[in-house]
TrEMBL record:
Transmembrane segments: none annotated. Catalyzes the tRNA-independent activation of glutamate in presence of ATP and the subsequent transfer of glutamate onto a tRNA(Asp). Glutamate is transferred on the 2-amino-5-(4,5-dihydroxy-2-cyclopenten-1-yl) moiety of the queuosine in the wobble position of the QUC anticodon. Its EC number is 6.1.1.-. Residues 11-266 form the Glutamyl/glutaminyl-tRNA synthetase class Ib catalytic domain. This is Glutamyl-Q tRNA(Asp) synthetase. A motif ('HIGH' region) lies at residues 16-26. Zn(2+) binds at C105, C107, Y131, C135. HAMAP family: Glu_Q_tRNA_synth. L-glutamate binds at R13, F14, A15, P16, S17, E49, Y201, R219. Binds 1 zinc ion per subunit. Belongs to the class-I aminoacyl-tRNA synthetase family. GluQ subfamily.
Length: 321
């Protein structure tokens, strides 16, 4: 069970994947979500996103929780583990299937890419290729590989049963400003269950955020592109849409996001290293915080975040971009 909502009604979360130890880039995301929760007098929860079992590293989740605690950030409720939530994902999937929004797909990634190139619709994306709807009319004897959610050309009307209107997903990000995405053109029907039988990230995160009563999602800007899909899925399932805030991500010298896959160094738990890493993360977020110890750091950092982000309603002017 999750705790009762605080008086402020705010509930945030940090949701790491246990593919390795926390590093400076993940500390920035954790710190931003933690500061926003505390600046709102709200709750901060941790979710272990271990739904992708083959990529999870044994012991990494426990190491992440221990590192967060050493850095002064502890969940206000027992962490949720996605590997224990399959029944909830199945229930959401079944509801979408019963409504006719989901259909099986036999296409491989190469076939999707080839189809896009033939129609001159291909474009570079981080992890997703826009799907042209090849299997919407049936599999024609081919075995199903994945299951996709239909994205009508008019997503707003389809989700709310209203007359045709603007076909784009619009939302205001508290850090990035007004955002818009034509989900049908830029993404297409997206997977809810993958070819390997695992639940897709988009479904799991939407179901889990609703289950935990998350009101505000603070995370890295590398996930900004996923937000319209999640908003559409929330509408399809009749779930509330949280507020979003996407902070800049730490990059390497070549411009690539700093990640465990690219050799990012694990955070040290030594006291002097912790305070230095927290200070660097705060400066990256545009907060001028100098403190002699962790308690003073968090007191000053929460006050600075409240003044600059919560009350002003915009990121600090000296934050990384």
């Amino acid at each position: 069970m999750t705790p009762r909502p605080p008086a402020s009604g705010y509930r945030g979360r940090f949701a790491p994947s246990p593919t390795g130890p926390l590093h400076q880039g993940s500390l920035i995301a954790a710190l931003a979500s933690y500061l926003d929760a505390r600046a709102h007098a709200g709750q901060w929860l941790v979710r272990i996103e271990d739904i992708d079992g083959p990529r999870s590293v044994p012991g990494a989740a426990e190491d992440i929780l221990e590192t967060l605690a050493a850095y002064g950030m502890c969940s206000d409720a027992p962490p949720i583990w996605q590997s224990n939530r399959s029944a909830a994902y199945q229930a959401a999937f079944d509801a979408l299937l019963a409504s006719g929004r989901v259909y099986p797909c036999a296409c491989t990634r190469r076939e999707i890419n080839d189809a896009l190139l033939r129609t001159d619709a291909g474009h570079a994306r981080h992890t997703t290729l826009a799907y042209s709807g090849t299997c919407r009319a049936g599999l024609h004897g081919r075995p199903a590989r994945a299951w996709r959610l239909r994205v009508p050309a008019d997503v707003d009307a389809a989700a709310a049963d209203q007359p045709p209107a603007d076909p784009r997903i619009r939302f205001r990000d508290r850090w990035q400003g007004d955002r818009v995405q034509d989900l049908a053109r830029e993404v297409g029907d997206f997977a809810l269950k993958r070819a390997d039988g695992l639940w897709a990230y988009q479904l799991a995160v939407v179901v889990d955020d609703a289950y935990s009563g998350i009101t505000d999602i603070v995370r890295g800007a590398d996930l900004l592109d996923s937000t319209p899909r999640q908003i559409y899925l929330q509408r399809c399932l009749g779930l509330p849409t949280p507020r979003y805030l996407h902070v800049p991500v730490l990059t390497r010298a070549d411009g690539e996001k700093l990640s465990k896959q690219h050799g990012a160094q694990a955070l040290s738990r030594a006291p002097e290293s912790r305070l230095r890493a927290l200070g660097e993360a705060a400066r990256f977020l545009g907060l001028a915080v100098e403190a002699p110890d962790q308690p003073r750091f968090f007191r000053d950092a929460i006050a600075a975040w409240r003044a600059q982000v919560v009350l002003r309603g915009m990121p600090p002017s000296n934050a990384a971009t």
